[in-house]
Amino acid sequence: MDLPSISVITPSFNQGHFIRQTVESVLCQQYPKLDYTIIDGLSTDNTLSILETYKSQLRLIVEQDSGQTDAINKGLRSAQGEIVCWLNSDDYFLPGTLQAVGTYFAQHPSCLWLTGDCLIVDEEGTIIQQPIRYYKRLLRQLPVPVYLGLTNAVCQPATFWRRSIHAQLGYLDESLRYTMDYDWWLRLKSIQPPVVLARPLTAFRIHKDSKGGSEFSRQFEEDYAVLTKYTSNTLTRTAHRLHNTLINSIYRVLKKV
Question: Span 6-255: which CATH code?
Answer without folding.
Answer: 3.90.550.10
